[in-house]
Every structure is written in structure tokens, then in C-alpha cells.
Specification:
It is built from nine helices and no strands. With 250 residues, it is mostly helical.
Length: 250
């Protein structure tokens, strides 16, 4: 009789894999080269989509706030203030990481899953290499290193999109928008975004790597593992966002 894989068993396998991942590496120089490559592949190559999405989201938020919230009874700076708070507190950290879980997470799961089904991971184990640490640890560290940079770019692109809307759309003056962006600024909100994004980056890299590393079967199983990694990462990001927001902002 086949015992069904329960969430507790899956979590236990995940913890065992993470124990192997964070064991002492054999050759630090080899790991450092992989770390640099993963920074480029997972972080640098994602800058374009982060800038594009954040720019348009910042522009849309500015338009929506202007049309639906601002009135003669409210200060003119409310558009800039609300746009800033949305970008800092939620979009540039939480929502952007949800988007990256689809791009980066599926890439990690499919890459490691392909190595598993083609027996490349088995070959590394036979040669005495800690395959879990060699393949997964650089991805986790690389994404966690680059994620604050991506959050910074996202915030900047969103605010720039709001300014472009104000300038070219003519919905409000740039001075009113600028005043709202500066009004009651709390530096801690930026650090909250960085802290949350570090947790989200770890979730994306480790969960996606787990599904890829433990895949069984052929190419169809790799595709399913890629889908499962995106779904699981997204759910965990939303759940941890709820907890972290309460801890950091409470």
C-alpha cells in the first residue's frame, strides 16, 4: 500500500534537504563562481521585467488614486502620498516577489529537475560532491543578494511612472505629486520592504529548488514540478507576508 505524501512529510523532506544545502561546502572558490553566475542569471536578468512592470503599476496607481480618491475635500498631495505607500509597503516587495516566483522559481525548478531526470545529479553524488549544496546554495544566496537591488529599482521605476503620468497625462502638477511623495516619509518602510524581500527570496529559491531536486519521472514530471514550485512559493509568500507585516509594522 502506497502511503500518501502529506504536507508534514513534504515539509520534513524540505528540512532534510536544507540541512544538506547548508552543510559546509567542499571548495569555496567553486561555490563563489556559481554564486556570481546565479546573481547574474536570477537577479541581473530580471531587472528589465521589474522596471517595466513597476513603471506601469506606478503610473496606473497614480491615475486610479487621482480619479477615485482625490476630491476637492482632500489635499492635492494625497495622490503622491498613497502611491508612495503602496509601492513601499506592498508592491515593490511582496507583489514583485510574487511575479518573480513565476519567472525565477520556474527557472530554478525546471533547471534542477532536468538535471535530476537526466541523472546529472546522480553523477555528482557518485563523484562525492554534495549536489544539494553545490546546486542550491548559490541560487539561494545569489537571489537573496540581488533582491534588495530589485526592490530598489522597483520603487524607483514606480515613482518615475507616477511622475510620467503627472507630466504627460496632465492629471496633476508634478510639484503636488512630489510634495505627496515626501509627506510624512518613514524610512523604516523601506527597510521593511528589504527585510520582507529577503524572506521571500529565500522562499522562492529554496522551495523551487526542492521541487526540482526531488522530481521523479521524465519531462512531464519536470513541468509539473515547475508548476508546483510557483504555486507553493506564491502561497508561502502571501502567508509569510501576513506574518512579517504584523511583526514589522505592529
Amino acid at each position: 500500500m502506497i502511503t500518501p505524501i502529506t504536507p508534514i512529510m513534504t515539509f520534513g523532506k524540505y528540512l532534510r534537504l536544507m540541512g544538506k544545502v547548508f552543510s559546509r561546502p567542499e571548495r569555496v572558490r567553486m561555490y563563489f563562481k556559481q554564486y556570481i553566475n546565479e546573481m547574474v542569471k536570477l537577479g541581473y536578468d530580471s531587472i528589465g521585467i521589474v522596471l517595466l512592470i513597476s513603471f506601469f503599476i506606478g503610473a496606473v496607481i497614480c491615475i486610479q488614486i487621482k480619479l477615485n480618491i482625490q476630491s476637492p475635500w482632500m489635499p492635492r498631495m494625497v495622490v503622491g502620498y498613497t502611491t508612495r505607500e503602496i509601492m513601499l509597503l506592498e508592491f515593490s516587495s511582496s507583489i514583485m516577489c510574487l511575479i518573480l516566483s513565476g519567472k525565477v522559481g520556474s527557472n530554478i525548478a525546471s533547471e534542477i529537475g532536468t538535471m535530476r531526470v537526466t541523472q546529472q545529479i546522480d553523477a555528482l553524488d557518485i563523484m562525492g560532491v554534495n549536489s544539494a549544496s553545490y546546486l542550491i546554495l548559490p541560487k539561494i544566496l545569489g537571489l537573496m543578494t540581488m533582491i534588495p537591488l530589485l526592490v530598489t529599482f522597483s520603487i524607483g521605476a514606480g515613482i518615475f511612472g507616477a511622475f510620467c503620468t503627472a507630466w504627460f497625462g496632465g492629471i496633476m502638477t508634478a510639484s503636488d505629486l512630489e510634495y505627496g511623495l515626501q509627506y510624512s516619509f518613514v524610512e523604516w518602510y523601506i527597510w521593511c520592504g528589504f527585510i520582507k524581500s529577503l524572506f521571500f527570496a529565500f522562499i522562492i529559491a529554496s522551495v523551487s529548488a526542492y521541487f526540482g531536486y526531488t522530481v521523479e519521472g521524465g519531462s512531464i514530471a519536470v513541468g509539473k514540478a515547475s508548476t508546483d514550485s510557483v504555486v507553493s512559493s506564491s502561497v508561502l509568500i502571501l502567508f509569510s507576508d501576513l506574518i512579517l507585516t504584523q511583526l514589522l509594522m505592529g
